[in-house]
Amino acid sequence: EIVMTQSPATLxxxxxxxxxxxxxxxxxxxxxxxxxxxxPGQAPRLxxxxxxxxxxxxxxxxxxxxxxxxxxxxxxxxxxxxFAVYYCQQYNNWPRYTFGQGTKLEIK
Amino acid sequence: QLQLQESGPGLVxxxxxxxxxxxxxxxxxxxxxxYWGWIRQPPGKGLEWIGSIYYSGxxxxxxxxxxxVTISVDTSKNQFSxxxxxxxxxxxxxxxxxxxxxxxxxxxxWGQGTLVTVSS
Lengths: 108, 120
Description:
A: mainly beta; 4-stranded antiparallel beta sheet; 49% strand; B: 6-stranded mixed beta sheet; 10 strands
């Protein structure tokens, strides 16, 4: 099983600042990585696929990078609605998937 | 545009079988190359993929659930279902259904989720 590890567990950032979230895979997943955003009480929402491609309707302030085992989600200028939990997910060996444990992005 | 909606009992007794249904609207569940999946989230914790069924009927499940999972499709009702046997309190979670595609294997969209509590 491919284990996905996210860091940090909690990230405190002020509105308007940049947030950088990390995800590491226990073995290479190439670029087969997605990021999801989950607001309280809501289902996860797809943000990024293919490690760096924004899903439909996702603002340009969200960007993804990386390949192999190291990935980053960057939010360039945090808006109030961006404070949420973010999950990475590998689909390199789909249809068997694994998620990271999540990073909670909170207001500083 | 596809929409998914989970339904089923919110309370299940220990050792019994959890049964949930996901109703698909906005498209046929039989459409080629689509996977229909279940994901769960224990209270305050992260996401765990449970299993998926391909449009052809092939199923895939998470080995950590030790063969307790059954996923099936009812094309006449445009629904797919999850059965999880021998449940314990550790199976208490919000259960989501979601879809993916052979060429786009990420989950999108998701249902809103339904909370299932395992308790006597």
